[in-house]
Every structure is written in structure tokens, then in C-alpha cells.
Amino acid sequence: MTMNNKRLSPLPWCQLAIGLIVTSQVSLGMATIGLAASWSRPMHYANNDIPALADRLLGEGLALYKSREYSEAISVWQSALVSYQAMDDRLGEGRASEALGLAHRALGNYGDAISFYERARELYEKLGNQAQLQGLLGNLGNAYAIIGRYELALELQYKRLQIVRELQDKEAEQNVLANLGATYADQGDDYDQVVYYYNQSLDLAQALNNKEAEASVLLNMGIAYNVQVRDYDQAISTLQQAQTIAQAIGDQGLIAEVVASQGFAYERLGQFERSLEFYDQSITLFNEVGALASAAMSLNNRAHAQLVWSDASQIEPQVREELLQSATNDLDGAITILESLQENLTLDINRVSLFDTQVMTYNLLQQVLVARKQYEKALEVTEQGRSRPFARLLEERQRVIQSDVSLTQLKAIANEQNATIVEFALIPEDSVIHQGKSGGPYGKLYVWIVSPEGKVDFEEQDLDDNLELDKLIEVTRNALDRSRAGSLLPVDTVEDTSQIFNAKLTELYDILIDPISKYLPPPSSKDDQTAEKVIFIPQGELFLVPFPALINQKGEFLVEHYTVQTAPSIQSLNLTRQILASRSRSGGQTLQAEDFLIVGDPDMPEVFELSSGSQTPVKKKALPLCQVPQLKPSQLPMNLAFPPMVMVVSSSVQWRQKVGSGKACLRLASFI
Description:
There is one protein chain. With 672 residues, the protein is α/β, with parallel strands linked by helices. The chain has 2 domains: 7-373, Serine Threonine Protein Phosphatase 5, Tetratricopeptide repeat (Alpha Horseshoe); 407-671, no CATH class. The chain contains 24 helices and 10 strands. α22 (616-626) links the parallel β9 and β10.
């Protein structure tokens, strides 16, 4: 379940606090008064006067915006922008650009919104117009927060706070304090800051008698009671106060957010029927005001309520299946909306960041399908969820057309790779409590094993309450870093570190490999030149796991029995193959040695005792293979499918042929 906080967004024509739902709902309050009061040019030009025309268009766009006719507002404001540019009116151009940013944000066109905001920022900074700049920084910060770039959002809000305090603008200060609280809440890791800024903002809103701002802060405090404090009765009480004010001022978008948050609270109290009623109301309201992203969130949360309800012991099988089918439909609808929001983003960092805030919906659909025992369909959804941004990037850069993910396609890829593919999915312990990109501790591990013959097996593992998988991985990586600094550490210290490290590698093996070992191909012997290939598709922190180096209870490395590879998704394997095949067919250059980046450590640690008995020959053989060129990012081969293409020696037999048979060498090969 996802919850977002309402942000207050200043309009470009005034320094009044104007409420704007993070997912695009707008309450314009006194925006028209702000426009009339702050506009410096007289409004009495002749009809054919360009300045008067531009001003009139800006006002007409505002009226359309107030009535939530965002597409029409964009059309009018675009004409105003052209007029201001024609007469070289930089301030007018900045205001029109910022207005266009607001409208595009309201429609979920976050890429366009950010582009217009950045243009307005450039103009205001050149003009030295601090009053306009402060509001723009708030809008830009909110836009970056929506797509999950929280650090940048906070930086912009703090810049704005400094300006408004210098200007002694209390309305704007209340606005930015609320947005700081909302951004910290969405970031999900500093509740003290959330409380601090919300309380300051609420005090100012009440002192200024700004009812809209007061309702917005009460909504955010209700969300905090839901998510961080988990005091659901207090959340409902606070949200009811917000709803009373929102209804009095007639803000439908704010009402929708409040209603959705109450649905969350009632679900947590186990009152599922009432929860679904509130979610239904919020979905209707969001659709009426065109708030697609918020509608998707309510669909997501409604599905979660049905999933939890279906797990109740007294539920009859038929009712359970009906709930799960309805949850599936809700999540399919939410994903359709969320994918449409991706289309407007052009920068890869923004696209991936937004996707990170939406991935919980795919995660939830996996859980629903697993509950329905539709394991193969769940694998399709898993692939769809993790491959979308990467596949789109390759499509754009390599002009490869990728079809929708299907089970048939996934099986075919396993066959073409002649490999057993193991795909992991981390399931948060409590996915309903989710802010921004923070999913909480993991409660389950889903694993799909796809054989070259197309057989799909599924394993579900409950993670021990006392085991925090991400912490285990972090400790393992830290031990790895220390062990690789072997020549700098005393021998006793290194030996202790090595023992700890090996124990952690065994612990990870027991969690990740042992439960699925029955589905893996027969392990090869150490001298076998044809080890079976296993491709791991990790998720999240699992990408930090050195899979080849995992150690079983016999003290054997996984790489001693299999050729091990990793990839971001099954689909990415197919895309890479298509790119290489396309090059070959078109007569393009084949990959040369300089197209690969070999990653390794040119210096072997001097404190490990090698089973081969002599370290010097190993170092001499390892250097040519492991030497890492000092390349700048701009020098990397960006024309490849994976820029840069990293070659890793993963077969123990191949590695021993290159650098010797010592276990230290093998361990090094596994890490890179």
C-alpha cells in the first residue's frame, strides 16, 4: 500500500500558500486575487496590444486551471508564453513557464513540468527576482519529490525557506514548512523532522487563519499517525478534522486525499468493508478531478485491503477468490495508470526514480497472484516490474523493439541461454506501510527457477524475524572490503575477518541457494570443463551478494560447481542478444577486446596462504587479466547494451587456468 503526502504549491503570480496535492489536485484559493495584486503591468491595453493579450491569456489559463481543465489551460498558457517571448518579456515568460509546469504536473506529465520549472528558474535567477524564485523553488522541489528524488527536493525547499524568511513572508514560510514535512515523510527515514515541520506549519496556518493550509497539514499529520505512529484512531480523528475544513472550502481534491487516508486507517483496524467504501469514494473523486496518480494509489491500497481480508480465517473459499480476483483487477488498473506516467519522463534518472516509487504496486500484484497459486503469472509480473525502465532505455538507445513480457518468451530465453535462470523477489514484511522508496524489512523471499526445458518451479520462504537480510548482506560486503585490504592488516586480523566472512557466505548460501538446490542442474566436479550455467536475477540488496563466492556446508564455493552469471532481468538477456544479433546482420563491427572492461584487483593480498604454495607466480599471471584501466565515465563504451560491458571470470576451472589454483584467487574471481 502506498501513501503520499499533500504538498502546498505556490502559484507563479503570488506568494500566497496555494494547496496542491502531490498527485496533481489543486486548490487555488485566492490565486485570482494574487494575480491581480502582483501583476505589475496595467491591464487596460487595446485588444491588439501584445502585452495585454499575453496578460489576458495568462488570466484565462488561470480560470481554466481553477476549474481543473488542465489541458485547456496548457493550450492557453502556451499561447501566452509565445507572446511573452515575442516581446522579450522575461518575467512574463518565467510566469507562463511556471504556470505550464503546474498544469503539466497536475496531469502527471512530470518530465514536462520539470522542464518548464527549470526554464522559469533560469529566468527568475537572471532577473534576480527573489519573490518569484522562492515560489518556483517550492514547485520544482515538489515535482522532484513526486518522482522520488528526495535529496534534491529537500535541497530546493531549504533554499526556498531561506529566501522567504529573508523576505519575511509568513504565508510562504508556512507553505515551505509543510512541504519539508511532506518530503521527509515520503522519504520515510526521519520521523522527528516530519513532526517538527508539520507542527511549525500547522501553528503558522492557524495563526494566519489559512483554512486550506490548515486542512492540508492536518491531512499530512493524519498520514503520519497512520504510517509512522500507527495510532489509527488518532489518525481518523485528525483526518475527520481535515475533511470538515476541506468540505467547507469545497476542495474536492483534498477531500479525496482525506477519504483515501481514512480507508487506510480502517483497513489497519480490520474494518475491511468500511475501508473499501472509503477507497471507492476516493477513486471516484480522483477520477472526477483527473488525478490519475492518486487514483492509482487508491486502487493499489484497495487491492491490499482485499488481500489482507482474503487471508482472514473465517473467509469462505469462494469469497476469498472473489476478493483476490477483484484485487488483481485493481492492480492491473493501477499499473496501467502508472506506466502512462512514465511516458512523459525523458531523463533516465527521473524515469528510474519515479519507477522506484511505484514498484510496490508490482510487488503487491505478485503477492496476490501467489495467494491465488498463479506462480507463472506472478513471474510475468515480476519481470514486467523490474525490466520496464531498463528495457525502455535499451529500446531508445539501441532501437530494439521489445514486446510485452510473456511466460512463453521467458521460457524461450532460458532455452536460448541454455541456462537455469533463478529470479528472486524480496517481499516487505508489511508492504502496506510504505512511504516513497522505503519498503521496510523483508518478510518473504519468492524464488522462481526456470529450466532450459521451460519448466518453472516456485519456492516461497519466510525470512526469520531475527534475520534482517539486508543487514546480513551489508556485513558480508563490509567483511569483503576488509579482506581485500589484506596486505594492510595484521595476519591475525585478516584470519579473523576471513572466518567471519566465510561464515556469512555460508549463511547467505543457506538462505538463497540451499532451499532451491533441488531445482538446480547437477553440480559439476572441480575438474569438469563444462559446468552448467546458472543465471541469477537478483532484486534490491541481493545485487550486492557475491553469488559465485557463496559457500555450502562442505566449504565449497558455488562457482566450483556452476558457471554463474547475474542479470537485472530475464528480458534484459533477450534484449542484449537482439542487439548483438542486429549488429551482426547489419555488418556492424563485432565486439573487440577494447569493448570490454575487465574488472579485478591487480594486487593479490600477501597474507592469505595459497594452497598452490607460492604466491609470486599467481601474481604474475593475475596482473594481465585483472589490470583495471583508469577510465573516465566519458571514455566508457556507451554503445553497448550494458555500458560498460563487464567481463567477469566466473568458472573456477577457467580461473585456475588463468591465475592458479589457490582459493584466494578463486575468492577474488568471485567478487569482481
